[in-house]
Each structure stands twice: as C-alpha cells, then as structure tokens.
Amino acid sequence: MITNRTFTMLKPDSLEKGNTGAILHKINASGFKIVAMKQTLMSMRDAETFYAIHSERPFFADLVQYMTRGPIIAAILEKDNAVEDFRALIGATNPAEAAEGTIRNLFADSISENAVHGSDSDENAQIEGTFHFSGREIF
Ligand code: ATP
Ligand code: MG
C-alpha cells in the first residue's frame, strides 16, 4: 500500500480564474513533490465515474457539469502523510468553513465550485491516480 502519495485535481474554476500557478506554488511550498501532472478535459462519463460515490446526491448533475465544462489539471503528489496533509492544506469542502490560508479559503467561491480535489484515503488516492495516469507518466 502506497501511503506517501495523494491525488489532486485543480478544478475548472481554478483554470478559468488563472489561479493554477498560485495554487501549484502553494502545493510545492507546502512540501509536496509533483510525481505526475497533466492538463486534461474530463468527459461526462469520466466525471460520472470519478464521482460515482455521489451519484445519488442532489448536486450530482451540477457536479458533473462543473467538472466537465473546461480543462482540469490532474496531479499525483508525494509527501510523508500525503493524504491527510493535503486535505489539511486544501481546507473544508465549503470554503466558508475552510481555515485561514487554506487553498479553498484563498481560491474557492462556493461549496460546489471549490477550486481543488484531494483524495480522502490512501486507497482512493491509488484508484484516482490510476484513473488519470498510466505507469509511464508517474515518476
Ligand atoms: P473533493 O472530493 O472534490 O476533494 P470533498 O472531498 O471535500 O471534495 P465531497 O463530499 O467528496 O467533498 O464532494 C465532492 C464534490 O462535490 C465537492 O468538492 C463539491 O464540488 C461537490 N459538493 C459536495 N457537497 C456539495 C453540496 N452540498 N452542494 C453542492 N456541491 C457539493
Ligand atoms: Mg471527496
């Protein structure tokens, strides 16, 4: 089990607002090494699969629309205690509740458009990283 890696996406709002450089700088400055990264456009099927756990939630259709309306930046990050430390760095799902200085506090507009994704477990980090990257793209 890989325990020192997590997976992130800079969501479409971050690219639309020109925040990718600032967010990636904050990720690096917080001690995360980028071991894979690319800009890509998720299809509706991709987004439905990626967020399948939320398929019964009332916001699911809006979530799929949001995540497919423009490109994202997907990345695999490495750091000791990566999953937990990255969730702390991004802050709460609702930016109104995200701690001062967290990525969502600084760059997110709302609970639905919240700038970044972070894996919530080692198991999901592995599944999500493999969803977006082949072995040849991870260093
Ligand atoms: P992510 O999985 O993207 O890192 P998260 O783990 O903080 O976010 P989840 O509960 O997994 O939060 O929700 C996935 C995404 O669905 C959220 O990031 C947000 O874009 C959207 N979402 C979650 N809850 C709501 C809600 N109540 N209303 C609207 N959108 C929501
Ligand atoms: Mg989540």
Brief sketch in words of this structure:
With 139 residues, this protein is of the alpha+beta class.
Tell me the Rg in angstroms: 14 Å
The count of helical stretches stands at 7
Helix content: 40-55%
In the CATH scheme, what's the topology name? Alpha-Beta Plaits
* Distinct small-molecule ligands in the complex: adenosine-5'-triphosphate, magnesium ion
SS content category? alpha+beta
Biggest sheet character: 4 strands, antiparallel
Which stretches are poorly predicted, pLDDT < 50 over at least 5 residues? none
**Residue-averaged pLDDT, rounded?**
97
**CATH architecture title:** 2-Layer Sandwich
**Principal-axes shape call:** globular
Q: Determine and state the CATH class.
A: Alpha Beta
List keywords for this structure.
alpha+beta, binds adenosine-5'-triphosphate, Alpha-Beta Plaits, globular, single chain, 139 residues, binds magnesium ion
Tell me about this structure.
The protein is globular. Strands 2-3-1-4 form a 4-stranded antiparallel β-sheet. The longest helix has 11 residues. It has 7 helices and 4 strands, in the order βααβααβααβα. It is an alpha+beta fold and 139 residues long. It has a single domain, classed as Alpha-Beta Plaits (2-Layer Sandwich).
